[in-house]
């Protein structure tokens, strides 16, 4: 399934962090069951946390997504604006990529 599930990217300022990533449906519900080898429309969701004492604006994500070790999607070199803003000490989810996923494939970011 999707790896890693812990903190994966830290802003150089150390205030906005991706604390989780997972495969889900369009509504953000995690995909918890599927039949091996079956295709599923999946969304790669990230959970973003603002550790700063102030609101942060224009959160940009730079990331590569690999499926079974092959580059499937990249937000380089321009980045992907994932949030207009996030309040201090708040957490928000955002879907960064949707694709047809074959149950059992490795997804890494």
Characterization of this structure:
The protein has no helices and ten strands. The strands form three sheets. It has a four-stranded mixed beta sheet with strand order 1-10-6-7, with no helix packed on it. Strands 2-3-4-9 form a four-stranded antiparallel beta sheet, with no helix packed on it. A two-stranded antiparallel sheet has the order 5-8. β2 and β3 form a beta hairpin. The protein is elongated, with a radius of gyration of 14 Å. It is mainly beta and 109 residues long.
Question: Notable features of this structure?
Answer:
mainly beta; disordered N terminus; single chain; 109 residues; four-stranded mixed β-sheet
How does the SSE layout of this entry go?
Blueprint (H helix, E strand, L loop, with lengths): L1 E2 L5 E2 L5 E9 L14 E12 L5 E6 L2 E4 L2 E5 L5 E7 L4 E12 L4 E2 L1
Parallel strand pairs: 1-10
Antiparallel strand pairs: 2-3, 3-4, 4-9, 5-8, 6-7, 6-10
Average pLDDT reading: 87
Radius of gyration (CA) equals 14 Å
Number of strands: 10
Helix content: under 10%
Counted by DSSP, the helix tally is 0
Taken from the alpha-carbon principal axes, the silhouette is elongated
The N- and C-terminal alpha carbons lie at a distance of 11 Å
Largest sheet: 4 strands, mixed
The unreliable regions are 1-10
Instruction: Give the neighbour order of strands across the main sheet.
Output: 1-10-6-7
What class would the helix/strand composition place it in?
A: mainly beta
H/E series: EEEEEEEEEE
